[in-house]
Amino acid sequence: MVNETVQALTIAGTDSGGGAGVMADIKTMQERHVFSAAVVVAVTAQNTIGVQDFMAMPKKMIDEQFASIADDLKIRACKTGMLADVPTVEAVVKNLKKYDLGPLTVDPVMIAKGGARLLSEDAISTVREKLLPLADILTPNLPEAEELAGMKINDHDQMIQAAKKLQSMGVKNVLIKGGHQVESKESSDFILLENGNSFWVSSPRVDTKRTHGTGDTLSSCITAELAKGSDVETAIRTGKKYVQATIANGIQVGHGHGPLNHWAKIDKEGDD
Ligand SMILES: Nc1ncnc2c1ncn2[C@@H]1O[C@H](COP(=O)(O)OP(=O)(O)O)[C@@H](O)[C@H]1O
Ligand SMILES: Cc1ncc(COP(=O)(O)O)c(N)n1
Question: Which residues belong to any copy of the Pyridoxamine kinase/Phosphomethylpyrimidine kinase domain (predicted)?
Fold first, then answer.
């Protein structure tokens, strides 16, 4: 019997502009040499300027996509991205409980870089109460961490406090992304692991507005590495290196928050 190719799954919304959501996830996993499947839970009409419209998928179609994948593929790790509204979050939670899809990374996407709401306000408590307990890794950006932890985050100490609070809500590993701390010269993310260890991953802040899909790219790289069998810390360090390379080696697409260069290369995985 030949060795099965490593397979991972993204559960998210599409981006017609190609920069974020399912499109960023598939490009990232492909670059990391992991085969990617996708459960599309919402479709957006979107470009680098903003989100013009979106539609959540009928729940029956969400169930059917999960069933098709589970019937045939062997998914080693999965992630969630945009989840739109309460019924969609509930449908995803139901299917995550039904099937074994490996470790789950939850990127709790709420508001796009352009300002559009991608998760309805009333769905935040559903994510907190029903999805977070299933997560092996949670990767909020600063506004998302504030919302989920119910506290303001103005500095590094408060990032640490928020991570502890989120872990106390049942998440095993928490990664709070510092990309929104624009006044800082470094873009630093804080990680609190299940075993209580913690560390920062930092990289020089690239002075660019071409950062559409950074969060999706980081979380899907982490998911791809977990699918290959990496431990959580190595997967996160590789994810940070990869997202930095995709931002620093920019491409020119669109007129707003441009997409990343997913074919940018990193020399080495994990830590230096
Ligand atoms: N201008 C930038 N330069 C370097 N790294 C960045 C920059 N903006 C974001 N990052 C990094 O990209 C990743 C995603 O962060 P963030 O932009 O906060 O997430 P999101 O896309 O969910 O809002 C993090 O590792 C963050 O440190
Ligand atoms: C379908 C979809 N999923 C996620 C994002 C978040 O990406 P960003 O915060 O970079 O706009 C997005 N804009 N669209």
Answer: 15-261
Q: Is residue 157 part of a domain?
A: yes
Q: Where residue 195 sits, what CATH number does that domain have?
A: 3.40.1190.20
pLDDT, tens digit, 9 for 90 and up, residues 186-211: 999 999 999 999 999 999 999 999 99
Atom of ligand 1 nearest to the CA of 211: 8
Residue ranges making up the domain that contains 88: 7-248
CA distances from 186 to 94, 116, 202, 204, 207 (A): 39, 26, 6, 5, 11
Q: What are phi and psi of 230, to 5 degrees?
A: -65, 155
User: In 3D, which of 149, 146, 137, 156 has the Cα closest to residue 219?
Assistant: 137
Ligand 2 atom at shortest distance from the alpha carbon of 113: 11
Q: What is the pLDDT of residue 118?
A: 97
Residue whose Cα lies nearest atom 12 of ligand 1: it is 214
Q: What is the pLDDT of residues 135-184, one digit of tens each?
A: 999 999 999 999 999 999 999 999 999 999 999 999 999 999 999 887 88
**Residue 270 pLDDT greater than 70, yes or no:** no
Residue matched to tokens 């990232």: 28
